[in-house]
């Protein structure tokens, strides 16, 4: 097993690795909608927050020579599920071809770090492993 912290990656809000790799699978810790340049500062609205989360996930994946095309599973957490679900889905869908959508779970939660509206974690798979 390998435990990864990505140089220039998002600042952890708790004690964790950005990703853990085992047997070709890469488990990426849930990312928040802040940026490495402004930890704890969130943009307004679910669209901007979803885009920032995906950017942070992409930064972690890129640090491991992977990309969104390697994602096999995602879990999405929303604090305002009924209000934000459709907009988040529209943003999420924009990152993947229609015939290559990862498996996914999306749940409503009571709260997230930084009072974020969204957090996403994922599992990727290294090609050829």
Plain-language structure description:
By secondary structure, the protein is of the alpha+beta class. It has one domain (2-125): 2-Layer Sandwich (60s Ribosomal Protein L30, Chain: A). The chain is built from 2 helices and 6 strands. It has a 6-stranded mixed β-sheet. Strand 4 (71-78), helix 2 (81-93) and strand 5 (103-108) form a beta-alpha-beta unit. The mean pLDDT is 96.
Number of helices: 2
Numbering strands along the chain, what is their spatial order in the largest sheet? 1-2-3-6-4-5
Indicate the CATH architecture: 2-Layer Sandwich
| Cα separation of the termini | 14 Å
- Helix-strand string: EEEHEHEE
| pLDDT averaged over residues | 96
CATH fold descriptor: 60s Ribosomal Protein L30, Chain: A
Helix content: 10-25%
Biggest sheet descriptor:
6 strands, mixed
Total strands: the figure is 6
- Beta-strand share of residues: 25-35%
CATH superfamily: RutC-like
Q: In CATH's first tier, which class applies? A: Alpha Beta
Shape: globular
Number of domains: 1
Structural class by secondary-structure content: alpha+beta
| Global Rg | 14 Å
Catalogue the unreliable spans: none
């Amino acid at each position: 097993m390998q435990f990864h912290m990505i140089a220039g990656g998002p600042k952890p809000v708790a004690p964790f690795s950005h990703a853990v790799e085992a047997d070709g699978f890469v488990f990426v810790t849930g990312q928040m909608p802040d940026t490495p340049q402004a930890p704890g500062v969130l943009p307004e609205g679910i669209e901007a927050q979803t885009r920032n989360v995906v950017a942070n996930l992409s930064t972690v994946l890129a640090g491991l020579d992977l990309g969104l095309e390697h994602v096999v599973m995602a879990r999405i957490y929303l604090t305002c599920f009924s209000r934000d679900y459709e907009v988040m889905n529209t943003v999420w869908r924009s990152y993947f071809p229609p015939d290559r959508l990862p498996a996914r779970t999306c749940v409503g939660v009571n709260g997230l770090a930084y009072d974020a509206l969204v957090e996403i974690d994922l599992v990727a798979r290294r090609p050829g492993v």
